[in-house]
Design goal:
The strands form three sheets. Strands 1, 6, 7, 8, 9, 10 and 11 form a seven-stranded mixed β-sheet that branches. A two-stranded antiparallel sheet has the order 2-5. The protein has a two-stranded antiparallel ribbon with strand order 3-4. It has one domain: 5'-nuclease (Rossmann fold, 3-Layer(aba) Sandwich). The two termini are 23 Å apart. It is 43% helix and 15% strand. The chain is an alpha/beta fold and 255 residues long.
Length: 255
């Protein structure tokens, strides 16, 4: 039976290209002025970290096949909400990022989504939605809360999300917002408020819209903000994935 790992590759860049923590003689991280100290990795060391990480994922999950995506674009979301991820403008690119992208394409045949208008998460979601016998590999909270099976490599744990939990998480995120993507949600409303609103399993969309109307006090503005949040947060699962190839795992790949 096939078991296809659909890998969110974006998180591997930070993991492999950031510095390595310096340790003392007891194996404890060294801090200076309360901050960890690091040693820069060579590019060869970064490649080894990335490759070892991927091999470990494939072995632990027992995958028979895999496919990976990275480097998607925010263009589609910025059409609806121009401030989407506007808080990331000053983020410095990782050293050797381009070289690592090329390495992961050459070594693992991962799909670099350069020139596409949707994000990595959208292609992961689309591939899983349209392909049987798949599971998601990602530590990303939005992907982890999609319906289906997931492997979180950072916690080394499997997670299963049923349709009810997936819908509740998504509409809850419309209230809470997402600071990392510059999506405000409803200011001052957090998880405790969401749990209160969703105390009864009724129409989540209707309840959240009512929250927006109560919050903004103007129906037209509330609907506009609701639409912006919905389109910014909702992962697309109907993209064309027919041009992307699934890789069969054999000894040559994991050696």
């Amino acid at each position: 039976m096939s078991k296809i790992a659909v890998i969110d590759v974006d998180h591997i860049f930070y993991l492999s290209l950031t510095g390595e923590k310096l340790l003392d003689e007891n194996g404890e991280p060294i801090k200076v002025d309360g901050k960890f100290t690091y040693r820069d990795r060579t590019f060869e060391e970064s490649c080894y970290v990335a490759d070892s990480y991927i091999i470990n994922i494939l072995e632990i999950t027992g995958a028979t096949h895999y496919i990976g995506f990275f480097g998607g674009s925010s263009k589609a979301r910025k059409v609806v909400y121009p401030e989407y991820k506007a808080n990331r403008k000053d983020v410095e690119p990782l050293k050797n990022l381009y070289e690592m992208k090329m390495h992961l394409v050459d070594r693992w045949s991962f799909n670099w989504l350069s020139g596409y208008e949707h994000e990595t998460d959208d292609y992961v979601a689309s591939f899983v939605k349209q392909t049987p016998d798949t599971f998601i590999v990602s530590p990303d909270k939005d992907l982890l809360n999609l319906e289906g099976n997931h492997y979180n490599p950072k916690k080394n744990e499997w997670v299963f999300i049923d349709p009810f939990a997936a819908e509740k998480y998504f509409f809850g995120s419309m209230i809470i917002g997402d600071t990392s993507d510059n999506i405000p949600g409803l200011k001052g409303k957090g998880e405790a408020f969401v749990n209160k609103v969703f105390a009864e399993p009724k129409d989540f969309a209707e309840k959240v819209l009512s929250c927006y109307i109560d919050h903004f006090k103007d129906t037209d503005i509330a609907i506009e903000k609701y639409y912006e949040a919905y389109k910014s947060l909702k992962l697309v699962n109907n993209l064309d994935i027919t041009t992307f190839a699934i890789i069969t795992i054999n000894n040559d790949i994991t050696e």
